[in-house]
Write a structure and sequence with these properties.
The complex is a heterodimer of chains A (about 290) and B (about 280). Chain A is mostly helical. Chain A has 13 helices and no strands. Helix content of chain B is about 75%, strand content about 0%. In chain B, helix 8 runs antiparallel to helix 11. The chains are: A mainly alpha (about 290), B mainly alpha (about 280). Chains A and B meet through helix 1, helix 2, helix 5, helix 6 and helix 7 of A and helix 1, helix 3, helix 4, helix 5 and helix 6 of B.
Chain lengths: ~290, ~280
């Protein structure tokens, strides 16, 4: 009798653990759905042609429109252009440097210098983004005597670099060594084998890494606050303050007159980031199989 | 391309890392030295006053260090009841199934959401809820920030611990099953002891992420510069005080903010180093 009770107790505990694992694991989907739902429902109404082609309105214009019961005129075109410009410059530098550094780490993984570089990559990857902002402020904004798109892209570059290095290194390490040996046996020199044989073979993994790096930094706000600053005009100059989508969200958050625009801008950013994420993950799965 | 040129190019690219990291430490230390030498390191660390009235400036980091520790530890506490089931779900109970794939996609997407959007959601959805429940009158504060922070670090803690849970050898588990253990007992007496150090290290890395989180916390913590009196009180973390005041600061205040940044950098570096070290050791075992 005692023994059957004991067994029952054990079986019930087992079921209880199973049930709560499923329950609590399922509950983590709730915040995702809640956030997606809220941003989607509130942001969808703001989407219009003007939203993507017009720059941000002044607070006064927005106030007048709200008072008259109209939708706020203007949009986030300045932010989209700023984000693309800075991201483009940062990617253009971070991709070649990151890939070369990643190749170095994968090829020399026993050397002491490579171990140090590898450790520093981890260090930089774990550094809070707000500190990257301060550093870029000290390095670029102070010497240039002003906020600029260049400063913003330097901050994004520093944040992207470790991510690209890591993904390149890991992809290059997975490649079978017979690939490299075959290339060398055919008489290709080292540079040729790495650039013409190994790099193309690793392309899928590196490309995924670059996409993930972009999706990681595109929503960064803190490092841009001290570097790009923000601007309400559509601008292509790289030496002047410039807007970015996350900076605009921050601006709308702090300005009661522009608050209506928050959700449209957030929806744009969220969709962009999540789509990039999903593309990268799908490519990664395809590339692996 | 010439091999020698190629190797030199690779080395030059690799040199960027030490230059950037060395530069970060050098610049932060140089610019923080004004504040640190003015107040003295320990005085700066343990003073809880932050006032910028001209002529009577005094800056101390204690309220922000406290804020950072409180939000991070609370976030960790709130995160465990969700991240641990997720890692068990993905790594043990539904290992390799479609369901596990769906759940990892969910956590991946959670990790992808920009922190400013977490902040918005916390501010417009969670904050009114907390006010309604009567937990705190102003809604924002350490507790609110920690709740959202917890959601943000769940993916990091869960996906890494799931990797370690997956690696638990099947023969160990089968041995326990053959002795008549239930699945819950296998998890308790085989999976946790074997994967324990790996799981522990993934939480250390999650702490490293929570420490430096800036925008979410800035939007939710209430931004006051006194020592927080309770967990529902408003406050500031090291990252949020920088985000709040860096743009308008100069002179001694700027230097003090950079000194806080230096401390934050060192703390996250140490935490990440411990985490990475533990992970390496866990992989070997």
């Amino acid at each position: 009798m005692i023994q059957t009770n004991h067994l029952k107790h054990r079986l019930w505990t087992n079921r209880l653990v199973y049930g709560s694992v499923c329950l609590f694991a399922g509950l983590t989907a709730v915040p995702l759905l809640a956030i997606l739902g809220e941003v989607l429902l509130r942001g969808w109404q703001q989407f219009s042609w003007e939203f993507f082609t017009e720059p941000t309105p002044t607070a006064f214009k927005a106030m007048k429109a709200v008072a008259a019961g109209e939708t706020i005129p203007g949009g986030i075109a300045n932010g989209i252009i700023g984000t693309m410009l800075m991201l483009g410059m940062a990617t253009a530098v971070a991709v070649p440097v990151g890939i070369l550094c990643g190749i170095y780490l994968a090829e020399n993984n026993k050397k002491r210098f490579a171990i140090i570089v590898s450790y520093l990559t981890d260090l930089l990857q774990g550094t809070p983004s707000v500190i990257i902002g301060i550093i870029t402020y000290i390095w670029v904004v102070v010497p240039m005597r002003g906020y600029s798109a260049i400063a913003g892209s330097v901050a994004l570059f520093i944040m992207m670099l470790p991510l690209i290095i890591r993904s390149t290194e890991e992809t290059m390490k997975i490649l079978s060594s017979s690939l490299k040996e075959a290339g060398l046996a055919l008489g290709g020199n080292y540079a040729r084998v790495v650039l013409k044989v190994q790099l193309p073979a690793a392309f899928g993994g590196i490309f995924t890494g670059v996409l993930l790096a972009i999706s990681r930094v595109i929503g960064e706000t803190a490092p841009l606050m001290f570097t790009a600053l923000g601007c309400s005009l559509i601008r292509w100059d790289v030496d002047k303050p410039i807007a970015a989508v996350p900076l605009l969200i921050w601006e709308f958050f702090n300005d009661p007159n522009l608050q209506e625009l928050i959700w449209g801008a957030s929806l744009f950013l969220l969709v962009f980031v999540l789509v990039l994420n999903i593309i990268a993950k799908t490519l990664a799965r395809k590339w692996k199989s | 391309m010439n091999d020698k040129v190629f190797r030199t190019t690779l080395l030059a690219a690799a040199l960027v890392m030490p230059i950037v990291c060395g530069g970060v430490i050098l610049s932060l230390t140089t610019d923080a030295s004004e504040a640190l030498s003015h107040f003295g390191f320990f005085e700066f660390l343990f003073s809880d006053e932050w006032s910028y009235t001209p002529g009577n400036e005094h800056y101390g980091a204690l309220p922000f260090i406290t804020g950072t520790l409180l939000t991070t530890l609370l976030a960790l506490l709130f995160c465990i009841p969700f991240s641990l089931p997720v890692s068990l779900f993905v790594g043990e109970y539904f290992k390799g199934t479609r369901m596990a794939e769906v759940l990892s996609t969910v956590t991946d997407l959670l990790a992808g959401i920009p922190s400013i959007i977490y902040g918005l959601w916390g501010f417009y959805t969670l904050r009114p809820l907390i006010m309604e429940l009567g937990i705190s009158p102003q809604g924002s504060g350490i507790l609110t920030a920690a709740l959202v922070l917890a959601i943000m670090i769940v993916p990091y803690a869960a996906s890494l611990s799931a990797e370690f849970i997956k690696m638990v050898p099947a023969d160990l588990k089968e041995g326990a099953y053959s002795l008549g253990a239930t699945r819950a007992e296998v998890v308790r007496y085989v999976v946790f002891p074997v994967a324990g150090s790996g799981i522990f290290s993934s939480y250390i890395l999650a702490i490293g992420r929570a420490l430096g989180e800036t925008m979410t916390v800035t939007m939710l913590i209430g931004n006051t510069n006194q020592m927080p009196g309770s967990l529902v009180d408003t406050g500031n973390t090291m990252a949020s005080i920088i985000a709040n005041q860096f743009g308008e600061a100069d002179g001694l205040r700027l230097s003090s903010l950079i000194a806080i940044a230096l401390m934050l950098f060192l703390i996250t570096a140490i935490i990440n180093m411990i985490g990475k070290f533990l992970i390496k050791r866990a992989r070997i075992v």
